[in-house]
Amino acid sequence: MVTIRLMNSMSLGNYTTPALFNEWASSAKYSVMKSFHHSDGTKCFGGGWFIVIAQLPTGQISNHYKLEDWDLFECDIIRYPPQFDGHTPQDVLTRLKDLIDVKDRE
Question: Where do the domains of the chain lie?
């Protein structure tokens, strides 16, 4: 599992990706969902994989995981996720950083 280290004046500490997504989902802070399919109906990588998507105030983030990790993510299960907005891995990092910056201003 990937560990995300988010640091600035208000550190969120170390989170595994399931823990971060699960915290958001359980608090209903952000919309988090998982699916075996992409929005166009195709199975993720032809099968054996799933996608987890979070809609943050700073934009959509997502990642694919092997089916063996399905139970690590405690969030809504949907048949087809929202349309992919074209984000890149760099966009995800920027959106997470911007999320922290927003929280610092609150």
Answer: 30-90
The two three-digit tokens of residue 25, written as one number: 């989902």
Contact 35, 81 (CB under 8 A): yes
pLDDT, tens digit, for every residue of 23-62? 888 888 899 999 999 999 999 999 999 999 999 999 999 9
- Give residue for tokens 């911007």: 98
The answer to whether residues 92 and 41 touch, using CB atoms and an 8 Å cutoff, is no
Which one, of 82, 36, 40, lies nearest residue 61 by Cα?
Answer: 82
3-state secondary structure of 18: helix
Residue of 47, 45, 49 lying closest to 67 (CA atoms): 49
Q: Which of 76, 65, 75 is nearest to 2 (CA)?
A: 65
Q: Full-prediction pTM beyond 0.70? A: yes
Distance (Å) of CA 27 to CA 20, 21, 46: 11, 10, 32
- Chain center to CA of 3: 13
